[in-house]
């Protein structure tokens, strides 16, 4: 292996799943200010929202992991986008209807003028 390309802060660290409290002790380079006492030893702590112990794919459960309202935010953005699209379509239809009426009126005025001059 090449020298001096690997991180120097590779150390034991604890990852804690916030859904079910499961902890994993492994080695990593993640930076954190929090610590946890595990088996009488203090380790750096990284809190995670989803791990293999709580993810539906690994647990076989179907449940919504909407910790921060992400699904609701997405649905609200989608609804707002659809409403904006409908509003633009209605405005475009109204504008095209006005243009059509104006052209019909101009055509009718021209035919009236030409019939009156004959």
Characterise this structure.
The chain is of the alpha+beta class. The protein has two domains: 65 residues, no CATH class; 41 residues. Helices cover 44% and strands 21% of the residues. The chain has two helices and four strands, in the order E-E-E-E-H-H. Strands 2-1-4-3 form a four-stranded mixed sheet, with no helix packed on it. A hairpin with a 5-residue loop joins strand 1 and strand 2. The chain is rod-shaped. The N and C termini lie far apart (99 Å). 2% of the residues are buried. The model has no long low-confidence stretch (mean pLDDT 84).
Spell the H/E element sequence: EEEEHH
Shape: rod-shaped
Number of helices: 2
Sheet with most strands: strand arrangement = 2-1-4-3
pLDDT average, as an integer?
Answer: 84
Query: What is the end-to-end distance?
Result: 99 Å
Rg, rounded, reads 33 Å
State the major sheet: 4 strands, mixed
Report the sheet-strand fraction. Answer: 15-25%
Oligomer: single chain
Domains, number: 2
User: Structural class, judged by helices and strands?
Assistant: alpha+beta
Bin the helical content: 40-55%
Q: Which stretches of 5+ consecutive residues score pLDDT under 50?
A: none
- What is the strand tally? 4
Kindly summarize this structure in a few lines:
This protein is α+β, with helices and mostly antiparallel strands and 118 residues long. The chain is built from 2 helices and 4 strands.
């Amino acid at each position: 292996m090449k020298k001096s390309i690997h991180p120097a802060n590779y150390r034991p660290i604890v990852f804690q799943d916030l859904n079910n409290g499961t902890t994993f002790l492994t080695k990593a380079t993640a930076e954190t200010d929090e610590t946890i006492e595990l088996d009488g030893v203090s380790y750096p702590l990284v809190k995670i929202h989803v791990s293999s112990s709580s993810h539906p794919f690994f647990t076989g459960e179907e449940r919504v992991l909407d910790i921060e309202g992400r699904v609701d935010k997405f649905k609200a953005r989608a609804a707002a986008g659809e409403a904006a699209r409908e509003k633009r379509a209605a405005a475009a239809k109204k504008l095209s209807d006005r243009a059509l009426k104006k052209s019909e009126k101009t055509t009718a005025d021209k035919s009236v003028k030409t019939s009156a001059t004959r």
